Fold these 3 entries.
Entry 1:
Amino acid sequence: MSLVTMNEVFPIAEEKKIAIPAFNVDTLEIAQAVLETIEEENAPSIIAVGQAAIKDGKLEALASIVTLLAGKMKTPVVLHLDHGQNFEQVIKALRAGYSSVMIDGSTLSLADNIAVTKQTLQAAHAVGASVEAELGAILGSEDNISHDDSKPFLVKVQDVVDFTSAVDVDALAVGIGNAHGLYKGRPNLDFGRLREVAEVCPAPLVLHGGSGIPADMIKTAIEIGIRKINVATEVRLSYVKGLNAESRSEDYYTMTNSGKCCVKELVREKIRLFSRR
Ligand SMILES: [Zn+2]
């Protein structure tokens, strides 16, 4: 089927009280492995393209690949720009056929974040695409997106109220102590803050930095109201792990097939965890 927007998959998540997984893809082979597993599991999902892939010149090529592969599937797939850096990049993604975009104004003042999100909403909604925004910093560093760890990072409840009354976003990513990359030890997620946010936020909530968050914490986050969980680092690492396992074969397909197997295993595990199967 054709690509869908987040607005088509969130009602499914809300009804079942699950989270929709968002998997970052960086290559054709990773996209093949992720999409195959999504179809096998019949799990509506989001395919995200992040800033490292875009820096590598793949914003359009990955869009074409995902659109083509998703077109042959029965399971709904969203093609999403991850951490859109500015309005220009959002426009490039929309022109390339993304059905959903994130605008990351989290490093800006609240007023500037509202302004750029408003601009993004107008453009994206005009072409039928959905929009995710971000409040509060997501810690760690990935794809050149990093935050100064010394600054306050927890999302402020009043900011959520002010932000969502000014802009009608389709999803909101919040910083509750979550981080990009892998965690050193058990993550320190502030579920109290997440509960307060969930009470006042009309938009589905998004948890970034899903790589390495233990199963019990994922379950709690979903119970509180998280409806999208991003997994990027673990997808890439599992592919590399698979390649390395067969590197001595020096055979391209032996290596990439091994990488795809590892990605499929990880994706299946996350789909089942996020849907509490
Ligand atoms: Zn993120």
Note: The two ends are 25 Å apart (CA to CA).
Entry 2:
Amino acid sequence: MSGSRPRAIIVGIGTECSSFAPHRTAMADFGVRVGDRVLDRFPAVQAGRFGEVDFVPGPVSRALPGGPVLRAVYDALLHDVLAAVRHGAPWDGVLLDIHGAMLVDGLDDAEADLAEQVRDAAGGADVVLAAAMDLHGQVSRDFAQLVDLPTCYRTAPHVDESDTRDRAAGLLARALTSGVSPARAWCRIPVALPGEKTSTRVEPAASLYRSLANPPDGVWEAALWVGYAWADEPRTSAAVVVVGEDLGAIQRECARLAEEFVAARDAFTFCGPTGSLSWALDEAAAATDGTFFVSDTGDNPTAGGSGDVATTLDTLLADRRVTDGAGDAIWTALVDPDGVRAAQRVGVGGDFDERVGGCFGWPARVGLRGVVRRLVSDGSGDVALIAVGRLQVLLTTRRTPFHTVADYARIGVDVTRTKLVINKIGYLEPELDAVSSGWAMALTEGPVDQRIDHLHFERLQHPLHPFDAIDDSWRAEVEVFGFAQ
Ligand SMILES: [Zn+2]
């Protein structure tokens, strides 16, 4: 009876891109998984929980967030995805393992393009498409029309990635084996929020996301996307999709979520103490013991920052409390390959005197005079630590997030013995949070400036909060797709 079991292929191209980052995401930035390394991302699939469906791994590529993907790179990755899909076609189902906020040079709504091409290659209209996404992904009307069963994380910071992927696989298995074709209700929510205002650990996101766990009868899955605010394209907004077999129930649940989200729009606030960089340094100076963290939020590489914005360094070098304070301070990290090479040329203990920053084109270069304290070269790229008094400035050859104690240990720094850590990051990742004695988020400039109304957008669809006033009488306009007429 082999051959009668439904077959589904898992494929994806995933990243998150800021329109304002001068960086471009290239092939070297992507890691491509195939075979078991794809299935590793789906523990329940691997454990055989959906054994009635054959899940077949195709190529799944991911890149660190950054600037838009070069068109030729997307085309090459797509070519490999389509070749794998065509090779085993026709398929009963496809599971897209994607982020959902990818920008590609010269192509709007990249995920809708991916979904359309994959659907065509897999067998056309009868193929069931599911998608496992980040809640910071975007769901345009076109995408909602193309993908039968989209869903996304329910936590930020994200702690339910593999649960979400397994849930998407379960939805696909249910659709392929139950004989039921569920419909979906979609609604654009006219709100754009920066990531650091949407932590699901605090209200109003906590309650909204908690409510997804117990959907009404007739609803298979309710999914809520915060969206990605730093993309200057028409689809940028929050969105909701509710999948199920009861048309009335999915429309009501979709409208409820959209309207509650809009009603709460002003209640989404920064998930920690937030202010200017100078305010954050005042907070740090007032802290007496332990390690104080300042998030340099505007150029956070894991949100799509380019990593080459040096503006914060200018302020740090001018602050004697940082350079000549009672304890060590470190700023991580500025990608500056020329700076690293200059440090390597003079060696440890040598004098460093270069202008740094802007290697991708961000218009800010800063003079940095200090002493080369340490040089590290390993598989993660070369780095140089430049000391200016008590402040150490980390230069890297690659865009590198510092999210764990081990990330710092790799460069020879014990964060727990460092008084002040200024980090290109948003909300603190759990491990850094656990070792911090205090924390402040600094609103700094960069491609992911949390003050999104400071950025110059040209292509958004209006109205969109916070750029436009949304009337309190706003009511959801829900569209239904996939209903068998
Ligand atoms: Zn995310």
Note: The pocket of zinc ion is lined by residues 134, 136, 158 (CB under 6 Å).
Entry 3:
Amino acid sequence: MNAIPLVVIGAGGFGRETLDVVGANNADPSSPTFKIIGVLDSNPSERNLARLSKRDVLYLGSELSWLETSEPMNYVIGIGSPRTRELVDQRFRAAGWSAATLVHPTAVIGTDCEIGEGSVICGGVHVSTNVTIGRQAHLNPNSTIGHDSFIGHYVSVNPGAVVSGDVRVEDRTLIGASATILQGLRVGAGAVVAAAACVTRDVQSGTVVRGVPAK
Ligand SMILES: CC(C)(COP(=O)(O)OP(=O)(O)OC[C@H]1O[C@@H](n2cnc3c(N)ncnc32)[C@H](O)[C@@H]1OP(=O)(O)O)[C@@H](O)C(=O)NCCC(=O)NCCS
């Protein structure tokens, strides 16, 4: 099978972690799943450009320049901010590009799960059974999603966060590192759950909650 050509968007921390997820999918050098074309970023820092060059990944330039000049390709977005990710996704989708979905081989995905297009599931993630994950969601390393839960579009679940069973996390929500959402709750669209918070009640859309119990 020919390797799928892939452009990664974002040279920052999560962009390069995404490169690692791609690399883990290419573990067999005789039949790699993806061929990394390079990384697009509209405003990369010098430090991040040096980090890309250190790992021999080509920096391709800004997103807009590629959208104007290149034929549509496959892309994956390595940008942690849900809203920014949504805007970038809309642009590339409108230009006819195709979002690739990445699952690290050490992630465990249970039965009856759906993973939306463009999502990135990192190493050590555990997704239980009957879970729906929307478009362009990011599940960071060692996060867990409980049974019968729903994770909306453009949601970011940061490292080590625990979403319990039967939870509804709506679009563009950010769940901070090591936060816990107790079972059966709803986290409204665009909400932010702070790192290490424990959510014991529903969270209203567009609000930020922090602490234990989260307020
Ligand atoms: C909650 C959060 C969104 C707040 O961001 P912010 O608005 O920029 O907050 P600030 O840093 O200005 O801090 C505002 C106040 O909240 C407190 N605070 C910040 N993060 C907190 C947290 N996780 N839990 C409890 N309190 C927190 C600060 O101490 C500060 O308190 P003060 O006003 O009494 O001094 C952010 O701190 C957070 O937790 N983001 C998730 C981070 C994460 O998951 N990182 C991993 C990336 S891979």
Note: The chain has a mean pLDDT of 97.
